[in-house]
Amino acid sequence: MIGWIKPFEKYSKPLLMAISVGLVAVIGVVDWLTGFEISFFVFYLVPVALAVWFVGDVFGIFISIFSVAAWVAGDVSAGAKYSRPFVPVWNAVIAVVFLFVVVAILTRLRKLHKELEERVRQRTVAMTNEMQERRRLEKELLGISEREQRRIGHDLHDSLCQHLTGTALAGQVLGERLAEKSLPEAAAAIHLVELVEEAIDLTRTLARGLHPTELEGEGFMDGFRELAANITERFQISCKFECSEAVRINAPAGAIHLYRIAQESITNAIKHGKASQMIIRLDKENDLVRLMISDDGVGLPENARQGQGMGLRIMAYRASMIGASFSIESLPRRGTRVLCTLPLGNNPPSETHATKSQTAIG
Questions:
Q1: Which residues are CB-neighbours of 74 under 8 A, at least 6 positions away?
Q2: How do residues 275-301 score in pLDDT, each as one tens digit?
Q3: Among 31, 94, 230, 242, which is most buried by a count of CB atoms within 10 Å?
């Protein structure tokens, strides 16, 4: 019944009161025209239900009494004959009691319905607030992680690299002095300097990964080009960067999140996919920037297929933070392809929009 009377919610109370009274009158007229042998009493439940549900139990009682009066009056005027005078009175009392019971049941049902709607509303508000708070904390944690990576990158470049450079210079001076004295330890000192210089190069590579060059504007493509070169040098694999035309992103958040998605994708391809060749590709189409990372590895691990990979969830979340779509799929023969598409010119999405970002893992 609740679903049947749902369309009447848009009407005002005075209009619903008029409709209820009008329905009783119409049913009474039809009942009178069809004669007393055919009962239309059950149809009076419709105006009673409307009156109780949308107006109130008091008006429902009034419509119940009015309905019984119309029903009895219709039968009597149609020529109904009773063996005793109290029979129509008894029928009317029974009908009133029955409709009063219906009014009581509908009143209770309406109360329970309103309580349920209120609980659902409160629960929805609580869940919305909880989701917003969780997303705020996730965003804050990502921000803290980004700041810590930048700080560590600065420390590696400005402190550790400088210290290692000083150590290499000291070792070089020591090697020259040992060579002047024709001591056999001179070769060991020179080898030690070479090891320190390799450590300097490795530290600088780590620092650039933790704190990439400025990614806004012209530096966006340079950052990915440098990332491909560092991956090739560090892991001794083929990592190429391709870009058909100049791509610029002026929003710092969009640039850094795309960069981190590429980093995470490459790490997964090397660690889990055992890839030996990778391609980082940037394309611009109308107002869209498309980042694609493909590899020749073994494909998606089982936990990734089930949506359990932490790295995949982080990439998808980063994409949602900037309003980008994210997908990852296995290639037909072997390998994996990660695709992230970012609309240009968009401000960072709101919390509601972020939750609607579509993520596909297949």
A1: 28, 29, 31, 32, 36
A2: 899 999 998 888 888 999 999 988 776
A3: 31
